[in-house]
Here is the input.
Amino acid sequence: MSSIEKDLSNKGPLTPALKNHINILKHIGNLIKSYLLYKLIFTFERFLNISQMLRLGERIRATRENLGIQVKDLAGLIDVTPSLISQIERAKAFPSILTLKKIADALHTTVGDLIGENATFVKNPYLNVENRKFVKKNKNGTRLYLLSHHDPVKQMDPFILSFNKHSDSTDIMTTANPRQEFCYVIKGHFKAILNTTEYELKEGDSLYFNSSQYYLFKNIGNESAELIWVVNQMKI
Here is the structure.
Protein backbone atom coordinates (compact mmCIF):
# COMPACT_ATOMS: atom_id res chain seq x y z
CA MET A 1 0.00 0.00 0.00
CA SER A 2 1.33 3.43 -0.95
CA SER A 3 1.68 6.33 1.50
CA ILE A 4 -1.29 8.05 -0.18
CA GLU A 5 -3.46 4.97 0.30
CA LYS A 6 -2.40 4.70 3.96
CA ASP A 7 -3.26 8.34 4.64
CA LEU A 8 -6.66 8.01 2.99
CA SER A 9 -7.49 4.65 4.63
CA ASN A 10 -6.92 6.25 8.05
CA LYS A 11 -9.81 8.56 7.22
CA GLY A 12 -12.14 5.76 6.26
CA PRO A 13 -12.63 2.89 3.80
CA LEU A 14 -11.49 3.49 0.20
CA THR A 15 -14.28 3.55 -2.35
CA PRO A 16 -13.77 1.95 -5.81
CA ALA A 17 -13.80 5.43 -7.40
CA LEU A 18 -11.11 6.67 -5.00
CA LYS A 19 -8.99 3.59 -5.64
CA ASN A 20 -9.31 4.24 -9.35
CA HIS A 21 -8.13 7.83 -8.89
CA ILE A 22 -5.16 6.57 -6.83
CA ASN A 23 -4.21 4.11 -9.57
CA ILE A 24 -4.39 6.92 -12.15
CA LEU A 25 -2.09 9.08 -10.00
CA LYS A 26 0.35 6.16 -9.65
CA HIS A 27 0.38 5.70 -13.42
CA ILE A 28 0.98 9.42 -13.97
CA GLY A 29 3.80 9.32 -11.41
CA ASN A 30 5.42 6.37 -13.18
CA LEU A 31 5.13 8.18 -16.52
CA ILE A 32 6.80 11.27 -15.06
CA LYS A 33 9.61 9.15 -13.60
CA SER A 34 10.10 7.37 -16.94
CA TYR A 35 10.11 10.67 -18.83
CA LEU A 36 12.66 12.24 -16.47
CA LEU A 37 14.85 9.14 -16.72
CA TYR A 38 14.61 9.23 -20.53
CA LYS A 39 15.56 12.93 -20.55
CA LEU A 40 18.52 12.21 -18.30
CA ILE A 41 19.74 9.34 -20.51
CA PHE A 42 19.14 11.34 -23.71
CA THR A 43 21.02 14.36 -22.34
CA PHE A 44 23.93 12.17 -21.20
CA GLU A 45 24.13 10.34 -24.54
CA ARG A 46 23.93 13.63 -26.42
CA PHE A 47 26.76 15.00 -24.26
CA LEU A 48 28.84 11.91 -25.03
CA ASN A 49 28.16 12.22 -28.76
CA ILE A 50 29.05 15.91 -28.80
CA SER A 51 32.18 15.19 -26.78
CA GLN A 52 33.18 12.42 -29.19
CA MET A 53 32.49 14.66 -32.20
CA LEU A 54 34.60 17.44 -30.70
CA ARG A 55 37.54 15.10 -30.14
CA LEU A 56 37.20 13.66 -33.65
CA GLY A 57 37.07 17.14 -35.16
CA GLU A 58 40.09 18.22 -33.12
CA ARG A 59 42.10 15.22 -34.30
CA ILE A 60 41.20 15.83 -37.94
CA ARG A 61 42.06 19.53 -37.73
CA ALA A 62 45.33 18.92 -35.85
CA THR A 63 46.44 16.24 -38.32
CA ARG A 64 45.48 18.38 -41.31
CA GLU A 65 47.32 21.44 -39.97
CA ASN A 66 50.41 19.40 -39.12
CA LEU A 67 50.56 18.35 -42.77
CA GLY A 68 50.04 21.91 -43.98
CA ILE A 69 46.84 20.94 -45.82
CA GLN A 70 44.14 23.59 -46.23
CA VAL A 71 40.45 22.80 -45.69
CA LYS A 72 39.65 23.31 -49.38
CA ASP A 73 42.50 21.00 -50.42
CA LEU A 74 41.34 18.20 -48.10
CA ALA A 75 37.80 18.64 -49.41
CA GLY A 76 39.08 18.34 -52.97
CA LEU A 77 41.04 15.19 -52.18
CA ILE A 78 37.93 13.36 -50.93
CA ASP A 79 35.37 15.05 -53.21
CA VAL A 80 33.27 16.84 -50.58
CA THR A 81 32.61 20.52 -49.92
CA PRO A 82 34.97 22.63 -47.76
CA SER A 83 31.89 23.50 -45.70
CA LEU A 84 31.45 19.84 -44.69
CA ILE A 85 35.09 19.54 -43.59
CA SER A 86 34.73 22.73 -41.56
CA GLN A 87 31.53 21.44 -39.93
CA ILE A 88 33.16 18.11 -39.05
CA GLU A 89 36.15 19.85 -37.48
CA ARG A 90 33.82 22.09 -35.43
CA ALA A 91 31.62 19.13 -34.34
CA LYS A 92 28.64 20.52 -36.28
CA ALA A 93 28.42 17.38 -38.42
CA PHE A 94 29.47 13.77 -38.04
CA PRO A 95 31.07 12.04 -41.05
CA SER A 96 29.86 8.74 -42.45
CA ILE A 97 32.21 5.77 -42.13
CA LEU A 98 33.07 6.07 -45.83
CA THR A 99 33.87 9.79 -45.54
CA LEU A 100 35.91 9.22 -42.39
CA LYS A 101 37.94 6.52 -44.19
CA LYS A 102 38.59 8.93 -47.08
CA ILE A 103 39.68 11.65 -44.65
CA ALA A 104 42.04 9.23 -42.89
CA ASP A 105 43.58 8.11 -46.21
CA ALA A 106 44.01 11.72 -47.38
CA LEU A 107 45.74 12.61 -44.10
CA HIS A 108 48.00 9.52 -44.23
CA THR A 109 46.59 8.13 -41.01
CA THR A 110 43.97 5.58 -39.94
CA VAL A 111 40.36 5.76 -38.82
CA GLY A 112 41.54 4.29 -35.51
CA ASP A 113 43.90 7.22 -34.96
CA LEU A 114 41.22 9.77 -35.82
CA ILE A 115 38.64 8.30 -33.43
CA GLY A 116 41.24 7.96 -30.68
CA GLU A 117 41.56 4.18 -30.75
CA ASN A 118 45.34 4.44 -30.36
CA ALA A 119 45.40 7.58 -28.22
CA THR A 120 46.36 8.98 -25.88
CA PHE A 121 50.09 9.29 -25.49
CA VAL A 122 49.54 8.74 -21.74
CA LYS A 123 47.90 5.35 -22.39
CA ASN A 124 49.96 4.48 -25.44
CA PRO A 125 53.34 6.30 -25.32
CA TYR A 126 55.35 3.64 -27.16
CA LEU A 127 55.75 3.45 -30.94
CA ASN A 128 58.14 0.88 -32.38
CA VAL A 129 60.01 1.47 -35.62
CA GLU A 130 57.86 -0.99 -37.57
CA ASN A 131 54.77 1.12 -36.81
CA ARG A 132 56.42 4.45 -37.61
CA LYS A 133 53.79 6.46 -39.46
CA PHE A 134 54.56 7.70 -42.97
CA VAL A 135 53.09 11.17 -43.44
CA LYS A 136 54.08 12.50 -46.86
CA LYS A 137 56.75 12.70 -49.55
CA ASN A 138 57.62 15.70 -51.70
CA LYS A 139 58.57 15.82 -55.39
CA ASN A 140 62.31 15.44 -54.80
CA GLY A 141 61.88 12.38 -52.59
CA THR A 142 62.15 13.76 -49.05
CA ARG A 143 59.98 11.62 -46.75
CA LEU A 144 58.32 12.61 -43.50
CA TYR A 145 57.47 10.17 -40.67
CA LEU A 146 55.64 10.83 -37.40
CA LEU A 147 57.43 9.43 -34.35
CA SER A 148 54.41 9.25 -32.04
CA HIS A 149 50.71 8.40 -32.13
CA HIS A 150 48.26 11.08 -33.24
CA ASP A 151 46.67 12.89 -30.31
CA PRO A 152 45.08 16.37 -30.32
CA VAL A 153 46.17 17.07 -26.74
CA LYS A 154 49.87 16.69 -27.50
CA GLN A 155 51.88 19.86 -27.07
CA MET A 156 54.48 18.85 -29.63
CA ASP A 157 54.85 16.53 -32.60
CA PRO A 158 58.17 14.73 -33.28
CA PHE A 159 59.04 13.82 -36.86
CA ILE A 160 61.97 12.32 -38.72
CA LEU A 161 62.82 13.65 -42.18
CA SER A 162 64.69 11.38 -44.58
CA PHE A 163 66.42 13.22 -47.46
CA ASN A 164 67.66 11.76 -50.71
CA LYS A 165 70.91 13.07 -52.14
CA HIS A 166 70.48 16.82 -52.86
CA SER A 167 66.78 16.81 -51.88
CA ASP A 168 65.20 19.49 -49.68
CA SER A 169 62.22 20.16 -47.40
CA THR A 170 60.01 21.95 -49.97
CA ASP A 171 56.26 21.39 -49.36
CA ILE A 172 56.97 19.53 -46.12
CA MET A 173 58.32 22.23 -43.82
CA THR A 174 56.11 25.27 -44.44
CA THR A 175 55.03 28.54 -42.84
CA ALA A 176 51.32 27.63 -43.12
CA ASN A 177 50.98 27.08 -39.35
CA PRO A 178 53.77 29.03 -37.61
CA ARG A 179 55.15 27.38 -34.48
CA GLN A 180 58.35 27.10 -32.53
CA GLU A 181 60.37 24.29 -34.10
CA PHE A 182 63.56 22.35 -33.39
CA CYS A 183 65.76 20.34 -35.74
CA TYR A 184 68.60 17.96 -34.89
CA VAL A 185 70.82 16.37 -37.53
CA ILE A 186 71.10 12.59 -37.16
CA LYS A 187 73.04 11.97 -40.34
CA GLY A 188 74.40 13.98 -43.24
CA HIS A 189 75.26 17.55 -44.15
CA PHE A 190 72.59 20.26 -44.51
CA LYS A 191 72.23 23.86 -45.53
CA ALA A 192 69.46 25.55 -43.55
CA ILE A 193 68.04 28.88 -44.69
CA LEU A 194 66.15 31.13 -42.26
CA ASN A 195 64.93 34.18 -44.17
CA THR A 196 68.20 35.37 -45.75
CA THR A 197 70.58 33.74 -43.26
CA GLU A 198 72.24 30.43 -44.14
CA TYR A 199 73.59 27.82 -41.72
CA GLU A 200 75.57 24.64 -42.33
CA LEU A 201 74.58 21.76 -40.11
CA LYS A 202 76.37 18.46 -39.71
CA GLU A 203 75.71 15.39 -37.58
CA GLY A 204 74.94 16.45 -33.99
CA ASP A 205 74.15 20.08 -34.89
CA SER A 206 70.74 21.60 -34.11
CA LEU A 207 68.58 24.61 -34.86
CA TYR A 208 65.71 26.16 -32.86
CA PHE A 209 63.54 28.78 -34.61
CA ASN A 210 60.10 30.29 -35.24
CA SER A 211 58.55 28.97 -38.44
CA SER A 212 56.67 32.19 -39.19
CA GLN A 213 59.67 33.11 -41.37
CA TYR A 214 60.76 31.51 -44.62
CA TYR A 215 62.93 28.45 -44.02
CA LEU A 216 64.33 25.54 -45.99
CA PHE A 217 66.56 22.56 -45.26
CA LYS A 218 68.63 21.10 -48.10
CA ASN A 219 70.82 18.00 -48.13
CA ILE A 220 74.14 19.25 -49.55
CA GLY A 221 76.04 16.01 -48.95
CA ASN A 222 76.66 13.19 -51.40
CA GLU A 223 74.60 10.66 -49.44
CA SER A 224 71.15 10.39 -47.91
CA ALA A 225 70.60 12.40 -44.74
CA GLU A 226 68.20 12.48 -41.78
CA LEU A 227 67.12 14.97 -39.17
CA ILE A 228 64.72 15.03 -36.22
CA TRP A 229 62.07 17.74 -36.50
CA VAL A 230 60.04 18.67 -33.40
CA VAL A 231 57.08 21.01 -33.82
CA ASN A 232 55.49 22.78 -30.88
CA GLN A 233 51.67 22.78 -31.18
CA MET A 234 51.25 26.14 -29.44
CA LYS A 235 50.66 28.75 -32.15
CA ILE A 236 52.79 31.88 -32.08
Q: What stands out?
A: The first strand starts at residue 133 and ends at 137. The domain at 1-117 is CATH 1.10.260.40 (434 Repressor (Amino-terminal Domain)). The beta strands are 133-137, 143-146, 156-163, 180-187, 189-194, 197-202, 206-210, 215-219, 225-232. Residues 16-66 form the longest helix (51 residues).
